[in-house]
Amino acid sequence: xxxQNRVTPFGDIVAIPQRGMFTGNRGIIHxxxxxxxxxxxxxxxxxxxxxxxxxxxxxxxxxxxxxxELFFLDEAVALAAGHRPCFLCRREAASAFRAAWAAGMxxxxxxxxxxxAVLRRERMEHGRKLVHAIPGPLSALPDGAVIVxxxxxxxxxxxxICPEPTPRPATQDDWRGILPGKLSGKT
Length: 187
Known about the structure:
Blueprint: E1 6-7, E2 13-14, E3 22-25, E4 30-31, E5 36-37, E6 48-51, E7 70-72, H1 75-80, E8 84-85, H2 91-105, H3 112-123, E9 124-125, E10 128-129, E11 146-149, E12 152-157, E13 160-163
Parallel strand pairs: 6-8
Antiparallel strand pairs: 1-2, 3-6, 3-7, 4-5, 9-10, 11-12, 12-13
C-alpha cells in the first residue's frame, strides 16, 4: 500500500501508487513509527522541490524525525502546489526560478526567505489551496502550465488542455464557457 506522500497540483497529499520525478518537503509532518501523516500539512514556511538523488544520499521514506519526504509527478505539479526549487540540491533550477521571479516582478532578485513569505500568502486561504485567476489569455501560458477548469487540474499541452492525471487531450470546445480565455488568445 502506498504511503500518503504524493502531492497533487492543489497541494493535497494523497496515497497513490504513482511515483514522482521530484521529492520535496514542508518540514516534519509525519509519525515515523506509523509512517502516517500528522494532522498538520506543513511545519515550515519553505515548501521545497528537491532532487530525488542528491550526492548519492539515500533516505528511508518517513523513517525518522526529519523532514517528511513528499513526491511530485513533475516540476509543474510541484510549482502548482506552491513549492519552489531547493537552493541546496537544485541550485540551478532555484536560481532560474529566482531570476524569473525578479524579471516578472521588475525587481532585484529576492532572498529565498522573501520568496517563501510571498508564496505562503499566495498558496493558501482558510486552510485550502488558493486558486488564482489567469491574468491573460491561455495562449500566453507556456506548454506544461497547470490550470484549473471546473475544479479539475489540467495542463496546457501543444495548444490543447489535458486534465490531470489522465492525459486525454481536450479541445477548446470541451471547455467553452469554463475558461477565462481561449487558446487562440481571443476572449
